[in-house]
Amino acid sequence: MHNHNHSQSDNSASKRIGWAFFLNVVFTIIEFIGGWLTNSTAIMADAVHDLGDSLSIGTAWGLNKLSDKEANATFSYGYKRFSLLGALINGVVLTAGSIWILFEAIPRLLAPEMPQVEGMLGLSIFGIAVNGFAAYKLREGNSLNERVLNWHLLEDVLGWVAVLIVSIVLMFKPWAILDPILSIGFTLFILFNVIRNLKETLLLFLQATPDAQQMEEVHKVLMSSDDVMDIHHFHIWSLDGEHSVMTVHVELNDDISVSQLKKLKEQLRHGLAGFDFVHTTIEIEFADEDCRDV
To answer: For residue 264, what pLDDT is reported?
Structure first.
């Protein structure tokens, strides 16, 4: 039942990412056409950025679907970490894309250009609707991959909000410099959050402890029995930001009977149930036994 629920969650994540990919590709094509018709370099630049987003989301979709495959002799823990790889790739791509946008926008502060305002207004409304719907779909998910992709789409939504505001203002005032100012502001905001998510992804990819507080709580559970003297080789790591694994060596105070050992195992099983680990390994070491992992 536990694995079945995770499978349903993973399938839902793939569907949500698939929706985001389809909407982004279709809108990128429309955006290229709209940028050409409005003679707007800003929209054309955003279309190039959206093309990168589409490739990035498509990669994440494929990796997320691959992560649903069952474990085998090559990947004994399954393919969950491929989803984490997708999040890592997308974080890097979005960071690079945001930096590129800054390099494009900053020079326009010195030489702003007036675009075709009516076309900008129409495309901005359409862009907010399409990207907003895609971001809403991904917001339903909890995976790290979906969270990183959601920043892709949120960046596009905020970018189109900037275009909408600028296009309305430009209808009354020829302040073309507002376009690069707002673009830089939104991009810096998105870049800050993406780097934060990218840092988390890198730590998980390097098998850092996902939650220090959880580690302390698990430690208390493992030490709660009077039969346990100490624990060591205690590790918790995450496969993909959602599914975690725990291993530990448990040292006993004295030699105990088989029935007592079964009781201890049941106690630990019950205590660890609330942490929802996908895999746990507990090695019992008797009082007169040396640890084989020095």
So the answer is: 92
Question: Helices 2-38 and 41-66 sit at what angle, rounded to 10 degrees?
Answer: 160
Q: Which residue has the higher pLDDT, 141 or 81?
A: 81
Question: Mapping DSSP to helix (H, G, I), strand (E, B) and coil, where does residue 72 land?
Answer: coil
- Give the residue from 134, 157, 184 showing the smallest Cα distance to 26: 134
Instruction: Please tell me whether residue 255 adopts helix, strand or coil conformation.
Output: coil
pLDDT at 268: 92
Amino acid making up residue 145? N
CATH of the domain at 144: 1.20.1510.10
At residue 245 the predicted structure's pLDDT band, cuts being 50, 70 and 90, is: very high
| Global pTM exceeds 0.90 | no
Maximum C-alpha span of the chain:
86
Structure tokens at 104: 């494009």
9 and 70 in a single domain? The answer is yes
| Residue 138: Cβ within 10 Å count | 24
